[in-house]
Amino acid sequence: MAQRGERGAQARILAWLRNLGDALGRPVLAVALAIIAGAIVILITWPDKALDPFSNIFSAYGALLTGSFGTPISISNTLVRVSPLIFATLSVAIAFRAGLFNIGAAGQMAVGAMAADIVGLTYIHWPGWLLVPAMVIASIVAGALWGGIVGFLKAWRGAHEVVTTIMLNWIAFWGTDYLIDGPPFTAPLGVNQTNPLPPQATIPLVADVWNKTLGSFLPKLDTFSYTVDVSILVALLCIVIYWFITSRTTFGYEVRVIGQNPKAAKYAGIPIKRNILFVMLIAGAFAGLGGALRLMGQFSYQLTATAASTDPTGFDAIAASLLGRTSPLGILFSSLLFGGLRSGSTNMQVVAHVDPNLVLILEGLIIYFMAADFIPVFRRLLPPWLRPRRRPALVVPPDAPIASAVNGDADEEVQYSAIAERQKEI
Amino acid sequence: MRESTALATTEESSTPLAVEMREITRTWPGVVANDHVDLKVRKGEIHALVGENGAGKTTLMNILYGLIRPDSGEIYINGELAHIHGPRDAIRQHIGMVHQHFMLIPPLTVAENIVLGHEPGGINALYNARQAREVIENLSKQYGLPIDPDAKIEKVSVGLQQRVEILKTLYRAADILIMDEPTGVLTPQETHELFRVLRGLVEKGKTIIFITHKLREVLELTDTITVLRRGKNAGELVTRQTSQAEIARLMVGREVLLRVNKMPAKPGPVVLHVEDIHALSDRDLEALHGVSFDVRAGEILGIAGVEGNGQSELVEALTGMRKITRGKLTITQVKDGQAGVTSDLTMLDAREERLVGLGHIPEDRRGSGLVLNDTIEDNLILGRQRWSQFSWRGIVLLLRDIAKWAKRLITEFDVRTSSAEAPARSLSGGNQQKVIIAREFSADPMALIASQPTRGVDIGAIEFIHRRIIEQRDAGKAVLLISAELDEIRSLSDRIAVMYEGKIVDIVSPAASEEKLGILMTGGHVEE
């Protein structure tokens, strides 16, 4: 209580540093520990016998890095993976804010893609300016509906969201397959995929947009190498929308209260059920949009059998959301990290002969170290003078009489300080 | 029963101590849960540990059972210094604990629950159901605790579940049994049965520590008593030589007599009208059996009572957090002594009640009054986030206005913090309470419901909070004050309603004697 005034500025800087440490410490430590543990795995398996095991570690991580962010083309390839991951991560993260564990981003993406595909293939003669928005809206509605079912069941029926999201995932996956396997949308050759979307129902590549605008006087980009589509820009926009919803609206505020302290939400009269429904609607909408934009942005613009059920994006999103701690910037960086791991793994295999599944191990380790939270352990290892001090517990603060002197009369002050003295003696 | 009492008291000096805790101190951030607490329990007695909620009873027992480590202090078991670092050590010292909330696994059988962790045959053998059943049948015969070992826990009554917990401690060879508020979940018949069992155990040489705040049980069952108040020893008593009134006085305490300077009340028209309110407890039993009272503008009505007599349920019913099953609740807007619009609150939720002018200081400030991880700013608009001064059309937060508002309140209510953006967690208990009070008082409510407003708060903050409450009264608000501190009730209230077992038994003047209040609070009658 007495820590005001004399140490104000210093305390504020310390508090700021501590906040920064609190925000970054755990994710950075988790990633670092995962890299070390992954190195041990490489060491043990020693995949490239041409090198000694230790060099193998460096060649593997080096190849992973160049394969994901080393060249403009590899960055573009990474972004192709990052874009849907951002949408899925936003979906998981906003549910996390309300204390809900949304395992269903994968299913929500699948129904989003399915809805967009149905609209795109049904209204095949519509012009692009009408068809693309219609598909986008259809995917948002479908995803929201898929998430909304979970929210409704959670809020009004008490069904646990982990169970319902997992089950809805499979309904979505098999629903997509149903669409693929039979008419009217299946491709004629019996190859277990739908017809490709008509050209006007797709969204352009970033390289295309560049070539048509700045590329008219700057060097043009090769559209075969730079395959990232404009959905990455929409993803960034969605991060901004997410930021706005979570930190600038009363809805975001209420969701935070529900997630942090449901009893306080009840005390404040926050409509818990309605907010849970809304948060799952939004979560589903993000994922549904992500699923649709991937379909509309990437060659071959068609749904293929079992693609939805084997796609790791919806589950990577859980890891990314945990690592990013549901903050907008955290979501961006962790999506880049996990997208990078995935897209760099091929290069790692080619160059360093390390099995690409190492990135799955790394991903698992990151979640593990995030969940385990080793910071207290490290803190205990610090010498005593570096350890953060425990706040002293106060029964009678030494400045209590001063407090009453500020806005009280002198007699009372004497009386209260006398009581304080007596309490100290007891 | 009475024989064993006589035994315990006549041989008091010669009976060895089963448990002695010396100078136990344990602090949480901002709170001293145990402040140099001593506890002496003699072998073969039932010892009551009494005190209000938050007095530190459970903390002390959790320390004895090894669930919490004390900051300082020593524990002696049977006269020898014991190092208890965890429940395992406690079990080794033959200490057993029956928690308030049972630690049982519902889908498993009685027998499986009892032997769990110490299965007959050791950890390397397969689970031997027959052997486990035999062991338990012997045990229940030996102590006269009949039970079906094959029944599933989820199928048996709460009273039997408690019996399973007791058997579990006996199976682990406990000689010292800690019972943490065992009667809180029981029906009167089950309570009666429990007392019979406990007396039987004492006859078999066990020692029992019985935590409670129900004084009638203390008098009925126990031999000796330790009273805790605000984490400190308030008294040690021999049950035969004391009375309900004396224990009540020690529990609520009189050594800190806060004198509050206030003018006589000028009560205006009725603001809060409570008529025959009924409500259920969390266990769906009726907790309020028809509560009626009025609170007028410009007065403080205090509600006195031993905790657990329906005060919490009453507050929740009044503030829209608990459904009112029967009865009526209205609020009347009073301006300049003139009654205005009356609105019915009976069916409204907490948000709507705030809109018509109800302020609420909740009893559990960390549990429900604050979002500890959120900033002070955010906490200062909790429950009012959709009001027009804080958000545009109730949708977009007006952060700049909120920051300005927070800054004003932090100065006005003297909240000691480094920044308005610090998390509420970083504040001391008194300052956390100031945040709640700032929020609830500054919204200009017509009626204020303050529940345990100074619990766990330091002296300086208590004085500040009291003055603010009186300011509200003098500004013509209706104030309902619920407090476990009798002194607080007596010094602040203009009238005192005494609550006992879900009913208002009497409304008296604050000049009424402590003895009279004590008797009313514990269900007695006062002859005028």
What report would you give on this structure?
The complex is a heterodimer of chains A (426) and B (528). With 426 residues, chain A is mostly helical. Chain A has two domains: 2-20 and 394-425, no CATH class; 78-352, ABC transporter involved in vitamin B12 uptake, BtuC, CATH 1.10.3470. Helix content of chain A is 72%, strand content 0%. The longest helix of chain A is centred in the N-terminal third of the chain and has 38 residues, at 8-45. Chain A is globular, with a radius of gyration of 27 Å. Chain B has 528 residues and is of the alpha/beta class. Chain B has 18 helices and 22 strands. Chain B has helices spanning 2-10, 57-64, 87-92, 110-115, 129-143, 158-171, 188-203, 215-221, 244-252, 311-318, 350-355, 365-369, 376-379, 399-412, 429-442, 459-474, 486-492, 514-521, and strands spanning 17-28, 31-42, 46-50, 72-77, 80-82, 95-98, 176-180, 207-212, 224-229, 232-238, 270-280, 286-296, 299-304, 326-335, 338-344, 358-361, 391-392, 396-397, 447-451, 478-482, 495-500, 503-508. In chain B, the strands form five sheets. A six-stranded mixed sheet of chain B has the order 6-7-8-3-9-10, sandwiched between helices. Chain B has a six-stranded mixed sheet with strand order 16-19-20-13-21-22, sandwiched between helices. In chain B, β1 and β2 (31-42) form a beta hairpin. In chain B, α15 packs parallel to α16 (459-474). Chain B is globular and about 75 Å long. Chains A and B meet through α1, α9, α10, α17 and α18 of A and β2, α11, α12, β18 and α16 of B.
